[in-house]
Amino acid sequence: MLAQLDDIQIVGSLSSGEELVSKMRDLNPDLIIMDIHMKGMTGIEATRWVKERNNKIKVILLSMEVKKELVSAGIQSGIDGYLPKDVEKSTLIEAIRAVSKGEKYFNEAITNLVFEDFYNREASARQTKQHLQLTDLSKREMEVLQLVASGKS
């Protein structure tokens, strides 16, 4: 599918992270499209290895699973994009072109998952902050607050 495009050149197709480790220098890719679940080294581990050696190489992870743990681990390893495997051809090509230009690319489902996790953490942090503010009250202020809460004037 990608070999038919004029602006994309396929330099190799590998079956494992270990094969990538052994052939990356010879293939010299600009961008790697990698399955997150591979036998042996995972796509996340392979991404970390690639980025430690050459941070200019772009990596797009593909996965059947859209889970926040996998997306978070991928982002921490340095991925430039993350897509579900069942993505449309046009979306994959759009992602490749965007990442090649230095942009990050995550489809809507993944973006929603990341933002949902972010907002949940922010809400939790606000609740913790509010709780901490209550504990900043003096002993007498806490006594008065408890009396007011129990209906006293």
Kindly list the characteristics that best describe this protein.
153 residues; alpha/beta; 6 helices; 54% helix; elongated
Structure description:
With 153 residues, the chain is an alpha/beta fold. Helix content is 54%, strand content 11%. It is built from 6 helices and 4 strands. It has helices at 17-27, 43-53, 68-77, 89-100, 108-134, 139-149; strands spanning 31-35, 58-63, 81-84, 105-106. A 4-stranded parallel beta sheet has the order 1-2-3-4. Helix 2 runs parallel beside helix 3 (68-77). The longest helix has 27 residues, at 108-134.
Give the structure's gist in a few sentences.
With 153 residues, the chain is α/β, with parallel strands linked by helices. The protein is 54% helix and 11% strand.
Class per helix and strand makeup? alpha/beta
Element-by-element helix/strand order? HEHEHEHEHH
Mean residue pLDDT: 85
Strand content: 5-15%
**Percent helix among the residues?**
40-55%
Number of strands: 4
- State the strand order across the main sheet: 1-2-3-4
Question: Would you identify the regions where 5 or more consecutive residues have pLDDT less than 50?
Answer: none
Shape: elongated
The number of distinct helices, counting runs of at least 4 residues, comes to 6
Oligomer: single chain
Evaluate the radius of gyration.
Answer: 24 Å
Largest sheet: 4 strands, parallel
Amino-to-carboxy terminus distance: 75 Å
